[in-house]
Amino acid sequence: MENRNEVTITFDAYSVNEGFARMVAAAFAAEFNPTLDEIEDIKTAVSEAVTNAIIHGYEETKGKVHMALLREEDELTVSVEDFGKGIADIEKAKEPFFTTKPELERSGMGFAFMEAFMDSVLVESVPGTGTKVTMKKYIRSGEA
């Protein structure tokens, strides 16, 4: 089997598509033969990234979310990108419990969860242009 595989999808920034993105990521990761815990980690991180793109990136406007999944050897890379309002202060946004949407009962733990469940998280953003979150997870193909 080839040790490199890539899939990209683009979908409307509707909350209903968050579940779809989770399932796509889980199905793609299945080729690694991950543990159930690894699958849940990936699904949770993708959920947080996609929800951030929809809720914070686009707020009440329409837009598209782009998700790219890449397998190279034992490394899974998931990128979630929006073309919305962007983040003015990334370090502040990454602080646990910080939220710009308290009225929506947001916990402010999105980036903290992504960082807890993935091996690395890179956030790139330009105000007025959008945000790209790139997450990596190393999976040893079901090895102990």
UniProtKB/TrEMBL annotation:
<feature type="domain" description="Histidine kinase/HSP90-like ATPase">
    <location>
        <begin position="37"/>
        <end position="141"/>
    </location>
</feature>
<comment type="similarity">
    <text>Belongs to the anti-sigma-factor family.</text>
</comment>
<keyword id="KW-0749">Sporulation</keyword>
<dbReference type="InterPro" id="IPR036890">
    <property type="entry name" value="HATPase_C_sf"/>
</dbReference>
<keyword id="KW-0808">Transferase</keyword>
<keyword id="KW-0418">Kinase</keyword>
<dbReference type="InterPro" id="IPR050267">
    <property type="entry name" value="Anti-sigma-factor_SerPK"/>
</dbReference>
<comment type="function">
    <text>Binds to sigma F and blocks its ability to form an RNA polymerase holoenzyme (E-sigma F). Phosphorylates SpoIIAA on a serine residue. This phosphorylation may enable SpoIIAA to act as an anti-anti-sigma factor that counteracts SpoIIAB and thus releases sigma F from inhibition.</text>
</comment>
<keyword id="KW-0547">Nucleotide-binding</keyword>
<keyword id="KW-0723">Serine/threonine-protein kinase</keyword>
<dbReference type="InterPro" id="IPR010194">
    <property type="entry name" value="Anti-sigma_F"/>
</dbReference>
<dbReference type="InterPro" id="IPR003594">
    <property type="entry name" value="HATPase_dom"/>
</dbReference>
<keyword id="KW-0067">ATP-binding</keyword>
<protein>
    <recommendedName>
        <fullName>Anti-sigma F factor</fullName>
        <ecNumber>2.7.11.1</ecNumber>
    </recommendedName>
</protein>
<dbReference type="Pfam" id="PF13581">
    <property type="entry name" value="HATPase_c_2"/>
</dbReference>
<dbReference type="GO" id="GO:0004674">
    <property type="term" value="F:protein serine/threonine kinase activity"/>
</dbReference>
